[in-house]
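PROTEIN DATA CARD
Card holder: Glycosyltransferase family 39 protein
Chain length: 483
Origin: Chitinophaga oryzae
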Amino acid sequence: MAAICVVTVLRLSFIGAMGLMPQDAYYFFYGQHLALSYFDHPPAIAYTLRLFTDVLGRHAWVIKLADTVVTIGTLLAFYRLSTFFLSRHRASRALLLLYSTLMITLLSLVSTPDVPLLLWWGISLIALYKAVFEGSRMAWVWTGIAMGLAFDSKYTGIILPAGTILFLLLSAPHRHYLWSPWLLLAVAFFLLTVSPVVIWNVENQFASFRFQSSGRVGGMELHPLDFFGVIGHQAAILIPVLLGALFYYLYRAFGRYRRRAWRVPAKQLFLLCFFLPPFLGFMLISPVYWVKLNWMMPAYITGIIWVSAWMGMKYIRWQWIVSMVVHLALAVEILFYPVPIHSDDTMIGWEGLGKAAREIRAQYPDDFIFSADDYKTSAMLNFYLPGMVYSRNVIGENALQFDYIGTDLSRLEGRNAIFINSLTDVKDDKDEQAYVNELQPYFAELEPLPPIIVKLHGRVVRKFLVYRCFGYRPPQPSEAGRK
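Structure generated from the sequence above:
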């Protein structure tokens, strides 16, 4: 009980204590340019953040609160789903397991498409259970809508209808639903719900679908040791006790059913059809493609319910002890930053950047501001500054969603600009200074300004290079997005 209280208090305190993450700012930027869909992802997270910030204001804590509220919905949906497969006592244990994970902390504090995805994933499985096991015809309609909203959150949502077909194929008592009109009705409502994403892609030459399919495949290279990296980060977000239990009980289930797969009970089969394909699928591709930390998260909704049928209270206590230690370590990192993160994926230093950038804008009010280190610095500056901050499309490079908001760069021709770039290592700016060579074709002259230095507890924690650029020359159509 003490561990549960400690972790809960820490999570609530993180809402106000944590600074904005680049992902928070980027999806907030989505929400400030509402559309049917977006280049990187579908629109659910954008509309969620837009709703909360319109009501409560443009603050970092409001964005964290939005994620927390949606994640509380995920926990409630998870508990309701678990009661269909477990006794209420076991369902409470399953909820304790899920609540103990670092995954829930990340979902409740960092804005990503996974935040609404997991909510609609749980709701989809509740509706599908009622349709398949309780014979509710109306539940097929809600299944189609909820699965569509999961897809509108993240393309990983396509695993839900795929898992449904897999279950119906493997479960003889329920196979008749494959040719029933109710499944077709669910499909119809799914297609209707995902139509905004499809329409956006049709209007934009299928840019998002291509980026998330062929664009991903192009990055495949053989790195066998990455498999162990994936095991490591999944152990971190689940807590090792729970991940170990999943592997152990999967091993036992394989030994029991490997020659009698058709004898897997229908309810266990249901859970496994939405757990094993994404879990084992991403494990299998990890030696040839780096699997991101959050990609397996939806699998754990049913995976945790499945393993909770056997996992004893002794191991749940150990899970919570380790979880408390992990969250205390996270609190120390947030408050004191003892371990520098040589990446832009941190909450440290961005607020200081925003304050300094406001002073620069006041000094040069007629200059436009841009960055070119991926989307992160541009997104952060867009959150902290009034007006538009531009991205790497200014110098003819692909700029993700910044390419799809109707920006007319020709209107900036001849103007001066402020270029701000983040250093991932405050002690090494050689690589970033070399980036200035990329700016020269687009400006008549460059002048270095004093860098932005951000300190925490008297120690330099972030550094941003600043240049004033004179006489902007926009890229020609043949140059735009060339790199």
